[in-house]
Description:
The protein is mainly alpha-helical.
Amino acid sequence: MDLYNITGFLIHRTDVKLTNYFTKQLKPYKVTPEQWSIISCLNIDKAMTQKELAEAIDRDQTTVVRMIHSLERKGMVRRIVHDQDKRSHYLYLSSKGQEVKGKLLLTVKNAHDYVTRGLEHDELNQLKMILDKLYRNVQED
């Protein structure tokens, strides 16, 4: 089978290019695409647990803990011990994290618009539906 007819290869090839482009867009803010996924989910005034965050960004908890530590060191995330489960933490954006999130929203929108240029609204919706179907096909694997 020809490599360029394998869906997984085509998705991976595209993902690598998209990730590299997005990394360059976020670099001035000293944030990685993975860290952006956390920042985008968290708020300054509403708590989220590490488990909820891991589920929201579809990452294992160990990876999320490492990313949280990095964002804590940058002063963007606050962790507060869960009042009922001392092993768990409530996560919030710090005021610095909220400020960075506000600045990044336009950058992320512009990056999205750039990589999806040339796609009609219906094509973009269809792409999202197809990618979601593929994701669900392998979600349990």
